Amino acid sequence: MSTLDWINRAPPHVRAFLDGRRLDEVECIVADMSGIARGKAMPAAKFAKQKHFYLPNSIFQQTITGEWADDGDTAFLEPDMILTPDVSTACAAPWTADWTMQVIHDMHDQAGAPVATAPRNVLKRIVALYEARGWTPVVAPEMEFYLVARNTDPTQPVLPPMGRSGRRAAARQAYSMSAVDEYGKVIDDIYDFAEAMGLEIDGILQEGGAGQVEMNLRHGDPVKLADEIFYFKRLIREAALRHDCYATFMAKPIQDEPGSAMHMHHSVVDQATGRNLFDGGDGTETPEFLHFIGGMQKHLPSVIALLAPYVNSYRRYVRDFAAPINLEWGRDNRTTGLRVPVSEPEAKRVENRIAGMDCNPYLGIAASLACGYLGLVNKIDPAPQFAGDAYDSADGIPRDLSTALDLFDAATEIHEVLHPHFASIYSAVKRLENGAFLQVISPWEREHLLLNV
Predict the structure, then answer these.
(1) pTM, entire model
(2) Last-in-domain residue among 88, 119, 150
(3) GS beta-grasp domain location, by residue (predicted)?
(4) Which of 134, 180, 252, 442 reaches 20 to 30 Å from 310, CA-CA?
């Protein structure tokens, strides 16, 4: 297959981007356990001649610090997995100096089975469980992130970016248009990059933190939306770097500021009728709607380790600080962990407000859908709807990574849904990361303990 033949198979936005230009390079990428893009780049002519590529499956055992975890079940042999391009995901890398495309790849072992530890395959597995029962899960994610000043010394606190006014971005300015305009050039590049990549943005707004932005995506297929978040994280970082600042998806990058969430709106469609399973046809809520919530209330504690995957993630869960600390559900109540937004009957959905923006989008969506799936299958009834301020309710989620991992390790029903081998590798990776963090002595400890205890 020639380069031209491959381009002709790609989505229309790829052909539009390359119209009249010669494709130089193709990035063959997958998302690792942390959601980092791993893979290899090659000349376009070589890419067009190869049907598949190879990478060691150990990339899913690498921690955020670059160490390697082993779950103890098998020897660390690093067998190659086979990567096949998913041409439907092809899009531009518009920040590069030459004409470059990026393509997400499917991952199989040498016997042809999906690689169980690959996060994209974990999400595909969950979607397949829904489809086997005649259901189509639908998601609509919201992305929150911070634009911050360059921070080249990790020992120094993170600061808001300098705006066009010459002042640092201000906090407590949610929905302010002038606050967004302070770093309008970054936002402009985000829009331009997204258009070149064929990605659709439903809206951008200023959030409550200094330099904090929220970006909403349209509802759709879970795997496609996870691919888009994976791509958006890359393009947003590149847009920020063009304007002398960083974009961070860290859950809590700035002390005393709100954290960044990845809220997920969920609904389920009946494949036979095209009907939203959560709507009774006249605006009433169905048993399936309640069972989905019931499954989330029962199983979400067991998957918090996927929704809040780092030690920093738990700094976001602060009472009365725009982040839920409970698993209550309520209609149009942002103090509950599970919110039912105001909507037309056909758009009835459940919003999971627990996940942090630092989670791997494939794993965050997979974990949330897995909880709802078990609720639907096992017909789990939820607790009564919560009325009032849910911050006054009891905590419903683990408040540190170690406790979250203990709950995850004990959740055998969740393991069977996600895949047992994935569960063991994920736990091994996160425990190694947590252990590395515990070896670090913080400035707080040196300030208050060094001479006083």
Answers:
(1) 0.95
(2) 119
(3) 24-112
(4) 180
Q: Flag whether pLDDT at 2 surpasses 60.
A: no
CB atoms within 10 A of CB 176: 14
Look at residue 6 in the predicted model and tell me its pLDDT: 66
What CATH number is attached to the domain comprising 222? 3.30.590.10
Q: Say whether both 305 and 362 belong to one domain.
A: yes
pLDDT greater than 80 at residue 3? no
The answer on 373 and 265 residing in a single domain is yes
Average confidence (pLDDT) over 153-180? 81
Taking the C-alpha atoms of residue 35 and residue 33, their distance in angstroms, rounded to an integer, is 6
User: Can you tell me whether residue 73 is helix, strand or coil?
Assistant: coil
Judgement on whether residues 79 and 228 belong to the same structural domain of the protein = no
Amino acid at 231: Y
The neighbour count for residue 242, using CB atoms within 10 Å, is: 12
Residue 362's nearest CA partner among 297, 307, 431 is 307
The backbone region for 256, taken as left when phi is positive above 0, alpha when psi lies in -120 to 50, beta otherwise, is: left
**SS3 of 71, please?**
coil
| Gyration radius from the chain CA atoms | 22
- Per-residue pLDDT, 432: 96
Torsion (CA) 244, 233, 352, 183 in degrees, nearest 10: 30
Please provide the DSSP assignment of 280-340 as one string.
Answer: -SSSPBPHHHHHHHHHHHHHHHHHHHHHS-SGGGGGS--TTTTS--S--EEET-TTSSEEE
At 378, which amino acid appears?
N
**Residues 371 and 321 both lie in one domain:** yes
CA atoms within 13 A on the CB side of 52: 13
81 has which bridge partners?
A: 55
> pLDDT averaged over the chain?
91
Q: What angle do CA 416, 421, 423 make, to 5 degrees?
A: 70
Residue 398 lies in a domain: yes
Mean pLDDT of 302-330: 89
Do 312 and 358 touch, CB atoms closer than 8 A?
yes
Q: Give the CA count within 13 Å in the CB-facing half-sphere of 128.
A: 10
